[in-house]
Design goal:
Blueprint lengths: L12 H11 L2 H11 L4 E3 L2 E4 L10 E4 L9 E4 L4 E4 H9 L4 H8 L33 E6 L5 E9 L17 E6 L17 H6 L2 E4 L3 H9 L4 E2 L25 E4 L5 H16 L4 E5 L11 H6 L4 H7 L1 E6 L22 E3 L3 E2 L3 E6 L5 H14 L16 E6 L4 H11 L12 E5 L10 E4 L2 E3 L2 H11 L4 E7 L5 E2 L6 H18 L2 E7 L12 H6 L5 H6 L2 E7 L2 H11 L8 E9 L8 E5 L6 E3 L1 H8 L3 H18 L13 H4 L14 H13 L3 E4 L9 E4 L3 H4 L12
Parallel strand pairs: 9-10, 9-11, 11-12, 16-23, 16-24, 17-18, 17-21, 19-22, 21-23
Antiparallel strand pairs: 1-2, 2-3, 3-4, 4-5, 6-7, 7-8, 12-13, 14-15, 19-20, 24-25, 25-26, 26-27, 28-29
Helix pairs in contact: 2-3, 18-20
């Protein structure tokens, strides 16, 4: 029988499937079908099996009439999944890819028809074991009950070519097949109820680690842990088949899930989490494989490479779910004994250590300059006040990734912040990566077909980050340049991003700060509260909610900014004065609004809160009177004059307007009217009568439009 070699071809996959189904002898297809489903039974011209998982039964029937045009066509009545042809069956039942199937059938195809060539090397016919209780196997894993009695054994068969050499799968790993055998059964089958692996030790332990396969479980067990797995790997357990598995040994256990580093592993772990909690597990903690690890990385790989298992298991948990039982002692207040663990801060009262942080402001506010200054102070090792106001509490390594500023601009900024070149004393502790000078921006996260994940380029960089000791701060500026997903509109993207940032913070122990933008507001509008600032941070609520700390920075109104700069003896520019505050924190933090003023020499916004308070302490009333006078004159000039009375045009009611001076907002009616009387006594304003029947109630400048009889109202306010 001649060999047809498969490989690159211009034919579509459907053509190749049809070729295989047509050229492979029907008798051989039936043999492969029986080999795939050892528990299947033939009745007449129909093959019966319980499911595509290989369970005994008659739910799946396949036509094996060699004379029928519907040969190998069937229907899975359990799930309603239509199947057709040996290729489809193998893809579904054995999770085989088309290249593997082509290799499997190559030796059974004749040379008639178009030749399909794969490289220059012939494909050897694989030798596949005959799966029965007497066939030789390469490894065996025994499942027992609590008393050590064997319930089922799983045997591993290594697939070899005709020369006896191990064959590789599409991932370059040895091709293996696993078969379960029940005691006394001559053929491969699952038990009616499928047990967990290592049950005696699971029952005797409080903490259990679940992994995907028996090899990983044995590796962890030999290392001193208690590990288990479910029989059949990632394809056996589904919501439909869950009733066939016994999770009862996990009752009252602290279960830690360690999935393989691939989508199938994560999917299986998610199922285990739900089923374990339903079975009464005390808690279930999901571990996330470290970034930079290859696809399929598992516990066995971790042990072989000397990875710190204890640290990974104890500190790298991403999510923990707990079964609430109010009848045990888990929730008694007495558990809070002794001194509570201290919240460590990177910047005292502002930025916690080891968490994801969002720093948001409008464009041109100077976010990059502020984070650079903070990074330099953290790297310096010298106790000092940060530009955000709080003391720098932690010192160590800092990495800053800037997507917009090249090295020339960063050099100018560093020079302004450190004119005496003290940076040479901490040269190795601060790394600044100007991405325009190294080939452009890389994405830390992207989206593909609705799935979010890290990029290969970032994982290489992250491997280097993980090797850095005493890391305290990682900065990505701005966020939008590093994420190829719609975090502004898609809550799933926002949640995926914040999960990634949290993972980085946990694995490195550093604060991970991302600079982000705020939504532009209408002309002349002013942000008045931290709550308003929080609501203007771009992105879905998942973005702000998902980080541990968010700090917002917003510009103050021009009138207040001019007064502030005047009192500080500084020149005023449009973006000279800002307010800022922690607008979200999952732990202790100062929520007080801080006042920032730009240094005209360095361009850096500095916290001047205490200084401004000191200057204002004796002149607060003066500032309020000035604001009231300016506001009255402004309203007169705009044709929307104020009155000294109650009503819609009264100073108290109008102080609620969005364009009213911030310093006058929230002040009581009597106090505001007292300010008016004081201004009138000082001859800075006066009251006027605008109509023959109206009273002398309208407020304006002593020499303004009202005094000259030139006032023109632009709205129909009261009696105007």
């Amino acid at each position: 029988m001649s060999v047809v070699r498969f490989g690159n071809t211009t034919s579509g996959s459907n053509d190749i499937v049809e070729e295989i189904s047509r050229k492979v002898p029907k008798g051989e297809q039936i043999r492969i079908l029986q080999d795939t489903f050892p528990a299947g039974r033939v009745h007449g011209k129909t093959f019966y099996i319980g499911s595509l998982l290989g369970d005994p039964g008659q739910s799946l029937k396949i036509n094996i009439d060699t004379a029928s045009q519907h040969f190998m066509q069937g229907q899975d009545f359990n799930g309603g999944v239509g199947i057709g042809g040996i290729v489809k069956i193998l893809m579904e039942a054995r999770s085989m890819k088309l290249p593997e199937i082509k290799e499997m059938f190559a030796s059974y195809l004749d040379s008639t028809g178009p030749q399909i060539v794969r490289d220059n090397a012939p494909i050897e016919n694989p030798i596949r074991p005959q799966y029965n209780s007497n066939s030789p196997y390469d490894a065996e894993y025994v499942y027992t009950n609590a008393d050590g009695e064997v319930l089922v054994s799983v045997r591993r068969y290594n697939v070899k070519d005709i020369a006896g050499n191990p064959m590789l799968n599409t991932k370059g790993k040895p091709k293996k097949e696993f078969r379960p055998f029940v005691e006394g059964s001559p053929y491969s089958k699952f038990p009616d109820i499928r047990p967990l692996y290592n049950i005696p030790n699971v029952l005797a332990s409080d903490r259990v680690i679940w992994v995907e396969g028996e090899k990983c479980a044995d590796a962890l067990n030999h290392a001193g842990y208690t590990a288990t797995c479910t029989i059949g790997g990632a394809g056996a357990l589904t919501k439909k088949t869950a009733h066939q598995f016994d999770f009862s040994p996990l009752q009252n256990k602290e279960l830690i899930l360690w999935p393989d580093n691939d989508p199938a592993g994560k999917k299986l772990a998610d199922l285990i989490q739900d089923f374990a909690l339903a079975a009464g597990a005390k808690s279930v903690t999901m571990l996330t494989p470290p970034m930079g690890k290859p696809e399929g990385w598992d516990a066995s790989d971790a042990l072989s490479e000397g990875y710190n298992i204890e640290n990974f298991v104890n500190t790298k948990a991403k999510i923990t779910k707990t079964n609430i039982n109010l009848l045990d002692e888990s929730f008694l207040v007495s558990r809070f004994a002794g001194t509570a663990p201290e919240q460590k801060f990177l910047i005292d009262g502002t930025f916690p250590l080891g968490v994801p942080i969002l720093f948001a402001a409008a464009g041109d506010a100077g976010k990059g300059m502020m984070t650079l200054d903070m990074g330099m102070k953290i790297a310096s090792g010298k106790p000092m006040t940060s530009t955000f106001g709080g003391l720098v509490k932690e010192f160590g390594n800092v990495v800053i990734f800037t997507a917009e500023d090249d090295e020339a601009e960063m050099h100018r900024r560093v020079e302004r912040l450190d004119p005496f070149e003290e940076r040479h004393g901490y040269n190795h502790d601060l790394k600044i990566v100007s991405l325009p000078n190294v080939g452009g921006v890389f994405a830390i996260m992207n989206e593909s077909n609705g799935e979010f994940g890290t990029t290969a380029e970032f994982e290489k960089i992250y491997e280097q980050i993980l090797q850095m000791s005493n890391l305290k701060l990682i900065v990505f500026d701005p966020l939008a340049s590093f994420v190829h997903a719609d975090v502004n509109a898609d809550p799933a993207a926002g949640a995926a991003l914040t999960g990634l940032l949290a993972r980085m913070a946990t694995e490195t122990g550093a604060s991970v700060l991302v600079c982000h933008h705020m939504t532009k507001i209408k002309d002349n509008a002013v942000i008045k509260t931290p709550e308003e600032a929080r609501n203007l941070i771009r992105g879905t609520t998942a973005l702000v909610d998902g980080v541990r700390s968010s700090f917002a920075l917003w510009q103050v109104d021009a009138q207040r900014g001019k007064k502030t700069c005047e009192r500080l003896g500084l020149p005023y520019q449009r973006n000279s004065c800002f307010d800022g505050a922690v607008v979200k924190s999952n732990g202790p933090a100062s929520r007080n609004v801080r006042h920032f003023v730009r240094d005209p020499m360095t361009g850096l916004l500095n916290d001047r809160t205490e200084e401004i308070k000191s200057l204002n302490s004796g002149t607060v009333l003066e500032m309020k009177l000035d604001a009231m006078a300016d506001w009255i004159i402004h309203c007169e000039r705009e044709g929307v004059a104020l009155t000294h009375m109650s009503g819609n045009n009264g100073v108290h009611k109008r102080s609620e307007d969005a364009d009213a001076p911030e310093i006058l907002q929230g002040i009581g009616k009597q106090t505001l009217e007292g300010y008016v009387r004081s201004l009138q006594q000082d001859n800075r304003i006066d009251k006027f009568q605008l109509t023959a029947t109206g009273g002398r109630v309208w407020l304006g400048a002593v020499d303004g439009p009202m005094s000259r009889g030139e006032y023109e109202a632009v709205t129909a306010r009261d009696n105007v």
